Structure formats: structure tokens, C-alpha cells
């Protein structure tokens, strides 16, 4: 008797579940399984990579545009929901999540751009002399770099360069085997984590060879690991 | 506005923690709530007692409002932490693989926000986490002795732990590379090495190189020391070379004169500053440990 009743209850619950999930097809989809979360993950990776990579990485136009569009959409959601006067407890809570997440995304975007500006400021002269570098910048970054270059040049001229002999006035002198222009140090070491096994060994130059196996964490010069970072076998951490 | 200096080339602990907040955790909602569309995904609709996975930052917010209980991950149970601690203590040359990448941060987040959801008293868990952390920090520091100019392997290190040694390791390795003269291009800079050290080992047989004058001989001394160290550079395999070789690393590789001449010396590495003989190694290690710990703890 008791068993029968238990069975009935179980059936009822199961049926309820079925009804519920057919009415809400997304209800059971985990947070992970969406393309949205993939985009957010890419943004996080982008931020980490830009912060840890000695070189300037190509600007991620599409991803940034998508994310900023979504931020705007979410801001609209907030505006609509706060003006509609429907401010019950659960609506407020919902807005709290939306707002918190907007701030989190904006933090990532800001961090990404600031990390880039840091490197752009440092290597502006190299960028201005190098077309490949210029293609990695966004329009506004390139504009900024050019203006900064011009302004600094004018300023130095005005303050002291004009009073030096003409042979010493250059800002990109290479005399004496010394470069005045700073370029990103591709030889600097980076921390990487291997995402998937790479067949064969990686030659590090000086007689060292290492294997890249999933889960390995290495500290290596960026230049030897660069192509594996680019094709996604390893990630900067 | 570019990045503030303290965030250049590394992350600050709060940033590492921010990243960990994106990882998922299982919660048991106490109330029903509609699903919420977010930029990075959808928080599924909640029904009381039905477990769902959400990012930790969502879980922490819900927990703050007593709207859910957090289910601590398996590795965070007292039992598993004890196993992990034993595994860590049993092998002082390797990090165990029992902990996830973000274990420090996730542990702190859950202890901080949901101490009542843990299966054991919070202070027990906290102490175990601290013990594990200390054991692992000791390994990380011991492993720093193996630093060389080529590579370093740190399997199973955590995100926070990695970030703590990041500045030091990066600076030291870049510096060693300069000393090795392997830097190419415009940044190349000759490093003058004082020919003041005569006790470099003359074990050159395996290094086919042309003859050097006196000052280069010392430079070759580096090569030998690091060549040896390099062979055992897997963090946690045997530590570099013999006592003699270690002494020679300590005594000439980080002399002040060398550092001052080369670019971007190691300003935050006090232990490696002056000449020191064997007897002082211990003291210096201690000093280094303290500074390291302070840096780590953000003091």
C-alpha cells in the first residue's frame, strides 16, 4: 500500500518535470551550454592574454563589438524594468544580477583596452614604423598612436632637440648598434597552460626540448611558444 | 589611461579572485525564481531544492540574500582535503593533481560566503587549506632554486600560486636570458662580467665552444651552472646540481656588479643581491622567503 502511494507520487513528480521542461525547453540547459558563455570566456581569455603577452595581440573587433552590443541591450533591460514600475522583490533581484554582470563585463573590456594602451604607449615609435603592428590596432588605437607620436615629437623638438646638433636630433637613431626604438620583447618569458597534446617535441633552441602534454604548465620564452598560442593548443595564463 | 604600475606584467590577487568567480558551482535554491538572461549566459530558472549550476558570483549574491545553499565542491570536503594534504606532504618535489586550477580562490570564496554550507566546521576546512597552501608554497620556493634561462615546468600549480611567483620568475628568467647573451635584436645588451671569480667549474667537455678570454670564462661559468640546472629544471624533480654548482650559482650569478650593469636588475629580490659564500645561503633563503611571503600576502 505504502509502496503504491510512493510510486504514484514519483510518477506525478516525473510527469510534472516532463511538462515543465517541455514548456521551458531552456530551463534545464546549464549555464555552460550557451554560445553566450563562450563569448564571455573568450573575453576573459583575451584580457588575460593581453595582460601577460609581451607583444600587442590583434584587436578583437568582432568580440568586442558583440560584447558591447550586449552591454547596451542589458542597460536597456534595466531601463525598461525600472521605469515600468514593476519593482517587486524578485524583479529587483533580477536587476541586481543584470547590473552586477554588466559591471563585470565592463571591467574586462576596460582592462583589455588599458593593457593595450600600456603597450601602445611604450612601443608607439615601433608601431608607427611597422605596418604589421598597425594592422593589429583598432582604428581609434591607431589614431591615438599617431597623435601621440606627433605630439611627443613636437614637444621634444620644442623643449630641447632643436638646440642639439642636427645629427643628434633623431628619435629613432640606430647608430652604434643600439636601437632607440623599443620593440616588444618576444624573448621574454610567459606562463602557459597546455590545452591539448601537441605531437612531437618543441625545440627551445639551446639543446632543450620539451613535450607539450595537456595540463602541463610551463614558463617559456614567448617566441618559442607563440605559434601554439596562436593556434589555440596552449593558452597564456 | 594605461594600466597602473602594480598591475603591469602580473595580476593583483583580487583580479585572480574575480576570474575564479566566473567558474561554476552547484547551488540548491531555496526559492523559485525565473530564469535570467545575462551577457555571459542564462541563469536557469530556480525551483526550491532543485540543484543547478551557476557562476560563483551569482551563488555568492544569492547566498548573501539567503536564497540558496552552496554545495561545496568535492575536493573541499574535510576528508578529501586531508587526503590532498597527505599527498602534498608525501612528495615534496611535486604538486599533487587533487586540486583544481582555482582552488585557492574558490576555497576562500566559499569559506567566506557560505561557511555554514560546508560539511565540516569552517575552521577545520580553513586550517586544512592553510596547511596545504603552506606545503605547496614551500615547494614553489624550493623550486625557484632551479630557475634557469630556458624553461620551468610547474604542473598542477594553482592560478593564485602561479600569480604569486609570476613577477619573480619572469624577472629572474629574463635576466638570466640577458646574461646568457641569447637576447637578439635591438634589445641585446652586453653584460660585463667581472673576472673576479676563479672557482667556476671547468667541466666544459659537453659544451663545444670556442675558447674565451678571462672575462668570458666566467660567463661560461654561468653556462655550466645553468646548463646543469636546466637538465633538472622540472620543478620538483631533483634540485639543481651538486652543492658546489649551487654555490657557484649563488656566488657569481647574482653579484651586485653584474646586476647593476645589466638592464632591469632584480630590485625585489633581496636574497640574491650580494656575494655570499656557502655558509650564508641559509640566511639568504630565509630572507627571501619572508619577502616573498610578504609580497604574496600583499603586505
Automatic annotation (TrEMBL), chain A:
InterPro entries: GINS_A, GINS_bundle-like_dom_sf, GINS_Sld5, SLD5_C, Sld5_GINS_A. Residues 92-149 form the GINS subunit domain. GO terms for biological process: DNA-templated DNA replication; double-strand break repair via break-induced replication. It is found in: Nucleus. Keywords: DNA replication, Nucleus. Pfam families: Sld5, SLD5_C. GO terms for cellular component: CMG complex; GINS complex; nuclear replication fork. Residues 184-237 form the DNA replication complex GINS protein SLD5 C-terminal domain. Its main location: nucleus. The GINS complex plays an essential role in the initiation of DNA replication. Belongs to the GINS4/SLD5 family. This is DNA replication complex GINS protein SLD5. It comes from Lipomyces starkeyi NRRL Y-11557.
TrEMBL record, chain B:
Residues 225-235, 248-273 have a biased composition (Polar residues). It comes from the Eukaryota. Residues 75-177 form the GINS subunit domain. It is found in: Nucleus. Residues 187-207, 274-290 have a biased composition (Acidic residues). This is DNA replication complex GINS protein PSF2. Keywords: Chromosome partition, DNA replication, Nucleus. Residues 182-299 are annotated as: Disordered. Residues 13-71 form the DNA replication complex GINS protein PSF2 N-terminal domain. Pfam families: PSF2_N (PF25005), Sld5 (PF05916). Belongs to the GINS2/PSF2 family.
Amino acid at each position: 500500500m505504502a509502496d503504491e502511494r510512493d510510486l504514484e507520487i514519483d510518477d506525478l513528480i516525473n510527469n510534472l518535470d516532463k511538462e515543465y521542461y517541455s514548456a521551458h525547453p531552456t530551463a534545464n540547459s546549464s549555464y555552460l551550454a550557451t554560445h553566450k558563455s563562450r563569448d564571455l570566456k573568450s573575453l576573459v581569455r583575451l584580457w588575460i592574454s593581453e595582460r601577460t603577452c609581451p607583444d600587442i595581440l590583434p584587436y578583437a573587433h568582432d568580440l568586442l563589438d558583440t560584447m558591447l552590443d550586449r552591454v547596451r541591450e542589458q542597460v536597456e533591460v534595466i531601463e525598461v524594468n525600472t521605469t515600468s514600475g514593476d519593482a517587486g522583490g524578485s524583479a529587483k533581484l533580477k536587476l541586481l544580477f543584470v547590473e552586477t554582470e554588466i559591471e563585470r563585463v565592463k571591467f574586462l573590456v576596460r582592462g583589455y583596452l588599458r593593457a593595450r594602451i600600456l603597450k601602445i604607449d611604450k612601443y608607439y615609435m615601433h608601431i608607427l614604423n611597422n605596418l604589421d603592428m598597425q594592422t593589429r590596432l583598432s582604428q581609434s588605437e591607431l589614431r591615438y598612436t599617431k597623435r601621440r607620436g606627433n605630439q611627443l615629437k613636437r614637444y621634444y623638438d620644442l623643449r630641447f632637440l632643436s638646440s642639439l646638433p642636427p645629427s643628434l636630433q633623431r628619435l629613432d637613431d640606430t647608430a652604434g648598434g643600439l636601437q632607440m626604438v623599443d620593440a616588444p620583447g618576444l624573448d621574454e618569458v610567459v606562463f602557459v597552460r597546455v590545452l591539448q597534446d601537441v605531437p612531437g617535441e618543441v625545440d627551445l633552441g639551446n639543446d632543450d626540448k620539451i613535450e607539450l602534454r595537456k595540463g602541463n604548465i610551463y614558463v617559456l620564452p614567448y617566441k618559442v611558444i607563440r605559434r601554439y598560442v596562436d593556434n589555440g593548443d596552449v593558452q597564456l595564463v | 589611461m594605461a594600466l597602473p604600475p602594480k598591475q603591469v606584467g602580473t595580476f593583483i590577487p583580487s583580479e585572480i579572485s574575480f576570474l575564479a568567480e566566473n567558474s561554476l558551482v552547484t547551488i540548491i535554491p531555496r526559492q523559485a525564481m525565473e530564469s535570467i538572461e545575462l551577457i555571459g549566459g542564462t541563469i536557469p530558472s530556480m525551483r526550491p531544492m532543485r540543484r543547478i549550476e551557476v557562476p560563483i558570483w551569482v551563488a555568492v549574491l544569492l547566498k548573501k540574500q539567503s536564497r540558496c545553499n552552496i554545495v561545496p565542491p568535492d575536493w573541499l570536503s574535510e576528508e578529501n582535503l586531508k587526503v590532498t594534504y597527505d599527498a602534498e606532504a608525501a612528495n615534496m618535489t611535486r604538486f599533487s593533481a587533487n586540486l583544481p586550477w582555482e582552488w585557492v580562490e574558490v576555497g576562500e570564496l566559499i569559506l567566506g560566503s557560505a561557511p555554514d554550507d560546508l560539511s565540516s566546521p569552517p575552521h577545520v576546512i580553513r586550517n586544512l587549506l592553510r596547511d596545504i597552501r603552506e606545503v605547496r608554497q614551500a615547494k614553489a620556493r624550493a623550486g625557484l632554486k632551479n630557475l634557469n634561462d630556458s624553461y620551468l615546468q610547474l604542473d598542477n600549480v594553482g592560478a593564485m600560486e602561479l600569480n604569486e611567483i609570476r613577477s619573480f620568475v619572469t624577472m629572474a628568467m629574463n635576466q638570466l636570458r640577458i646574461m646568457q647573451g641569447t637576447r637578439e635584436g635591438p634589445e641585446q645588451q652586453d653584460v660585463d662580467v667581472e673576472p673576479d671569480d676563479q672557482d667556476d667549474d671547468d667541466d666544459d667537455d659537453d659544451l663545444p665552444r670556442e675558447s674565451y678570454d678571462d672575462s668570458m670564462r666566467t660567463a661560461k661559468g654561468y653556462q655550466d651552472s645553468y646548463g646543469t640546472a636546466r637538465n633538472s629544471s622540472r620543478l620538483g624533480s631533483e634540485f639543481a646540481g651538486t652543492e658546489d654548482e649551487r654555490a657557484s650559482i649563488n656566488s657569481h650569478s647574482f653579484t651586485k656588479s653584474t646586476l647593476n650593469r645589466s638592464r632591469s636588475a632584480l630590485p625585489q629580490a633581496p636574497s640574491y643581491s650580494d656575494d655570499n659564500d656557502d655558509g650564508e645561503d641559509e640566511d639568504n633563503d630565509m630572507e627571501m622567503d619572508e619577502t616573498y611571503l610578504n609580497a604574496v600576502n600583499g603586505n
